[in-house]
Amino acid sequence: MTTPRPGPGLVARRIAQYLLDALLVAVPIAVLAVLVAKYLHPRGFGAFVTFLKIEAYTVFVVWALAFWFITIWWPHRHGGRTPAMRWLKLRVVTLEGGQPPLRAFVIRALLMVVDGFCWGLAGVVIMLCTPRRQRLGDLVAGTVVVSSADEPGLPRPDGDLGAVASPQLALGGREVGLHGGERQDE
Predict the structure, then answer these.
(1) Is residue 164 part of a domain?
(2) Has residue 185 been placed in a domain?
(3) CB contact at 8 A, 39 and 31
(4) Within a domain: residue 141?
(5) Could you report the per-residue pLDDT of 99-156, keeping only the tens digit for each?
(6) What gap in Å lies between CA 133 and CA 125, rounded to an integer?
(7) CA-based nearest residue to 93, from 163, 142, 53
């Protein structure tokens, strides 16, 4: 893939994307945990402490599964994008520009443990030092996160539908122009 070296702005968008995806997972689980603790807690201090421990472990497991769902399954099924990547116009692609296989997303997620070292500073430093702004998970998985702002989407309001390049239509074997209702043969 011959793309120009992305600037540090891509790194900032990737940090924002990670935080948004984490919030997307954590906030509903935290709200649910608070509601469960408020309305289903047992009576007595000892039973309440035991209940909170069980709830904490359960919340951690549910959060881990939900985060893996958002970082592995969702982008694999939705064109290399997590929900926050879609909002920030980012996409995970292979080095050739194609859709990464499921194992690439698994490798990226597993190596988030290394990239997340020291509150994510290790991943940020690696991204700033690599030419394609890849973190360790991307380097090992053979993927790169690219900006998808320039991808074709819906037609722009200027009428760029891409349907007809000129005011002539090909009908059968002849070219027929649309100039004032007159037929023009070439």
Answers:
(1) no
(2) no
(3) no
(4) yes
(5) 999 999 999 999 999 988 888 899 999 999 999 999 999 999 999 999 876 554 444 4
(6) 10
(7) 142
